[in-house]
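Work Package 3 (structural annotation) set out to generate three-dimensional models for the target panel prioritized at the project kickoff. During this period the team completed the workflow that converts sequence records into discrete structure tokens, so that structures can be stored uniformly alongside our sequence database. As a representative example, we reproduce one entry of 287 residues exactly as it appears in the project archive.
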Amino acid sequence: MKGLIVVNAYAKTTETRQVLRLREEFFKLGVSTRVIRNDCFFARVGGDECAQKLNDYDFCIYLDKDKYASRVLSKHMRLFNSAVAIENCDDKMTTHILLSDSGIPMPHTVAGLLCYDKTAEIPDSAVDGVIDALGLPVIVKQAYGSMGSGVFKANTKKQLLALMQKFKCEPHLFQKYIASSHGRDMRVIVVGGKVLGGIERRSNGDFRSNIGLGGSATAVAVPREVQDYAVKAASVLGLDYCGLDFLYGDTFLLCEVNSNAFFDAFEGATNINVAGAYARHILEIMR
């Protein structure tokens, strides 16, 4: 059996810790893997050159968010995660909509108004509408983004207006600010419908807790209700692997679901072999 690991076309290197760990665990299981950048123009219509290049591979771990390439690759091999699952998580608002009737608690979230005219002014009524729904401070997020990028906190109406103006021509959302979870959250990793464990992420002064922004990670016990929420969310979204971020409120609130969650800090904090669990899950599916 042979596997393909696809990373972003513009990645500085393919030898990331995530990729090296996956290859290491597959090697232990007797499976050969090849890492390539998504710069082969997989998404093409007409001709069979692309299909011929893929004949040697049985599965693909897709560590990119290019939905066109993932759709094409999925015609030729099993993707982990699937193209649809990745798309559902890549758009944060879509994630919340799909989970909205699942019974999983989430922060109150409102989709941003999409504008098609860069010269248009944000009406005062629109700003007031967000404040009426969510209060201040309020979290403003670009619908697409990772590692904390594209996430902002508006403390005043003036700041909110500025962010609405900035993102008016891009998909974005507004989310209730959970003060009790300022600078911290719980990251839970699910593989094959099972919770592997959890870490608490804490920032060093930022309202965001992302490790990539300087946050720290500590292993924590995952409460039963959080485990149930995590497994259910992964099932609804069709994910073989994911990292889920929960905020600390009166109850735990699911904030985001990451289909390609980095697990280096998680493995280091918990001593849980995430790469090995993911590799074994993939082989169980393929066999």
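The mean pLDDT is 93.
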